[in-house]
Amino acid sequence: MDIDDPTLRIAPAEGADRDALADLLVETVAGNGSVGFMHPLGLGEARAFWDDALEAVVRGERIVLCAWRDGELLATGSLALVSAPSQPHRAELTKVMTTTAARGSGIGAQLVRALEQAARERGRRLITLDVSLVEGATAFYRRLGYSVAGDIPEYAHKPLGGLGATRVLWKLLDAREPVATAVVDPAVDERFMRHALSLAERAENEDDEIPVGAVLVSPAGEVIGEGWNRNITEHDPTAHAEIMAMRQGGKRLGNHRLVGCTLYVTLEPCAMCAMALVHARVARLVYGAGDSKTGACGSVSDLVSDPRHNHRVQVQGGVLGEESGRRLTNYFRSKRGKPPL
């Protein structure tokens, strides 16, 4: 949750902070965090890195902020101030790290906003960054208004081994911020997602289709469309759960636009369904399991929030994601004669 915390103190890093910063860097690398180092990272090497970084701060080449509570370092992040004559307006966001105990508390979001403000104060209006393709990082930055530029395969070794891809993101600080939307009760999202899961079960049990279900909900909270995968049954390559639900909703409303509606679907939409959401002007997408192979709402690509489109869809992923993913996994395991998980 991105809620301002009055007990949190965000301040520029000082020389006396070096040891705490080094401890956080070592912890991050040991947890397989992609921050440029391999595990095991020695404390001496971590201290040397921060010595160099803090010297760059003195030279005006870098900004380093720290988030503290009761004398404990909870998070840090840096901005590399690009010095190329052709890019005086750009800064690069690096080394954003949060302690394990502080993750999910909104501290990371406050820190990034503070870094953005520091960038503005130094005349920087374009922020770029790259993140490892792990679940959570892209969604975090998208909530803060960042857009996906693309992915680079085999970009760097993960700290614990193995080559990993990276995703490049960007944000224009003077761009118009997304219109704020009403806070949604998580219990409401879960209720409609359970409805979508029941439809996914019908796809499997009634049609022997891949178990994906979708529910379209009006701005008033009324279900106006339901669907599940029927592309094999109907010999229709477009008959994905999302399309079926939107077709039903459009007929119910008598309109090809689904303005203000929310679509709940158990699996992250593919490119076809993602663009259907954009064209239909769906306001919000809530999905369960991410799709690392064809997901077009943040996993493989990010079509629903591309700033080049004249409509962008608010996205919330991971709602009952474990349950949704397990159903899909067990469906394919059963096809291979394997026991369910």
TrEMBL record:
Residues 187-314 form the CMP/dCMP-type deaminase domain. It catalyses: adenosine(34) in tRNA + H2O + H(+) = inosine(34) in tRNA + NH4(+). Its EC number is 3.5.4.33. The active site is at 242 (proton donor). CDD domains: NAT_SF (cd04301), nucleoside_deaminase (cd01285). It holds the Pfam family dCMP_cyt_deam_1. Binds 1 zinc ion per subunit. It is an enzyme of class 3 (hydrolase). Keywords: Hydrolase, Metal-binding, tRNA processing, Zinc. Its cofactor is Zn(2+). InterPro entries: Acyl_CoA_acyltransferase, APOBEC/CMP_deaminase_Zn-bd, CMP_dCMP_dom, Cytidine_deaminase-like, GNAT_dom, tRNA_aden_deaminase. The keyword Nucleotide-binding does not apply. Signal peptide: none annotated. It comes from the Bacteria. Residues 8-174 form the N-acetyltransferase domain. PANTHER family: CYTOSINE DEAMINASE FAMILY MEMBER, TRNA-SPECIFIC ADENOSINE DEAMINASE. Belongs to the cytidine and deoxycytidylate deaminase family. ADAT2 subfamily. Homodimer. Catalyzes the deamination of adenosine to inosine at the wobble position 34 of tRNA(Arg2). This is tRNA-specific adenosine deaminase.
